[in-house]
Amino acid sequence: MEIWSTNSSDDYDWSPLSCCHSLWKLRLLVRKLKKLPKLEEFPPNLRKLVMVMYQLEEDPFPTLEMLPYLETLTLSHPLSGYEGHFMTKYYFSAMGFGRLQYLRLHEVDFLEELEVEKGALPCLVLLHISSCWNLRMLPEGLRFITSLKKLENYIHLFCSIGTTKQQAWV
């Protein structure tokens, strides 16, 4: 199922999704959404989620990491001229994403830091990061994810050396 909205309001009624027990794949493309749906408003058997959110102001992971069957997550958050408040750090807690195997972060323009707690993402096989232009470094906590087989990292890092900046593709 795909939900596409350019509605100028961020007041959505997500509750009908919670009744979709056979819905396992969802793509959300929402122009203005400041908060995610509550955990109980997501389809209960969701396994694959793609989210393109233009004005999301809160860290989505405290909610998303509690989805019990989620195996694939793609998150894109292009700013597209947005000048509001946004999260610069994503935090993956030790108890979250128990079944997640594939995580893709694409165009999360504002993201500067990822923190991965020991015990987080225990089933992660693929981490794909692309066009996250402000991300300063990969999280040290990745070393604790023993299931990680592939890291696709397309980040343009700016490294400061003295008073000059050098660009490096990692």
UniProtKB/TrEMBL annotation:
Domain of life, per lineage: Eukaryota
SUPFAM superfamilies: L domain-like
Stated name of the protein: Uncharacterized protein
Native species: Protea cynaroides
